[in-house]
Design brief:
Length: 221
């Protein structure tokens, strides 16, 4: 058994292939990007959250690993992709000789990251949830025809700037968004993202922290 690293995962051919395949399938269905840019950003945010909150280097590494591969289930189907991705990851990580205790942390985090059925079950999963659900940005929109935007396209495209700010001392995790309300009224944002923001609140609570949503300078949650 060996301690696998984030770089090992990033360089693994199977994981690379499955991330690409999942993103391709979602693109055909009209979803926003779930590409290497997305999973890298999620991994960076998850790692930063645990680092600023004082978690161990190994927990930070596991959060980055779980975050990077959290969406590979999309290559099978969007439905229940979290659970599918957890099962696929279990098989690959087992073959790579990862310690069973660490496999358990990684796959449970992947399997619990979706807002429909998921919940934070350990610090790694909480960080993954926060990293994933706060990745709202214009560059994730694939559609170039504004006239045919659906609500998900409009909401993401309307975000001019999005930043996750972590105050380790006060244990605050802030998602700060600048939204062009001429493109997307705030009610549209909450229509599709409220459940995700509430899951972020649960994840922050699990980390003994507080999640705050700030849009155009106003605290919403």
């Amino acid at each position: 058994m060996s301690l696998i690293t984030f770089e090992d995962i990033k360089n693994n051919k199977e994981f690379k292939t499955y991330i690409e395949a999942g993103d391709k399938h979602l693109g055909i269905k009209g979803f926003t990007k779930h590409d290497f840019g997305h999973v890298t950003k999620v991994a960076e945010t998850a790692g930063d959250i645990l680092k600023n909150l004082g978690y161990s280097k190994r927990e930070i590494e596991l959060a980055k690993i779980a975050s990077y591969i959290h969406d590979i289930g999309n290559m099978v189907s969007r439905q229940e992709h979290a659970q599918t991705g957890a099962c696929i990851s279990f098989n690959i990580l087992s073959r790579l000789g990862v310690e069973p205790e660490e496999i358990a942390i990684i796959v449970s985090s992947i399997g619990n990251h979706d807002e429909e059925e998921g919940c934070p079950v350990n610090p790694v999963s909480a960080a993954l949830i926060l990293g994933d659900k706060t990745d709202v940005r214009r560059s994730r929109v694939r559609n170039t025809d504004f006239a045919t935007f659906d609500i998900h396209d409009r909401v993401n495209y309307a975000v001019e700037e999005g930043t996750v700010k972590i105050d380790g001392g006060n244990r605050d995790i802030d998602l700060v968004l600048t939204i062009d309300t001429s493109i997307c009224p705030l009610i549209d944002y909450f229509e599709i993202f409220l459940s995700r923001m509430l899951l972020c609140r649960k994840a922050a609570d699990f980390l003994n922290s507080k999640f705050n949503l700030i849009i155009n300078g106003t605290k919403m949650l």
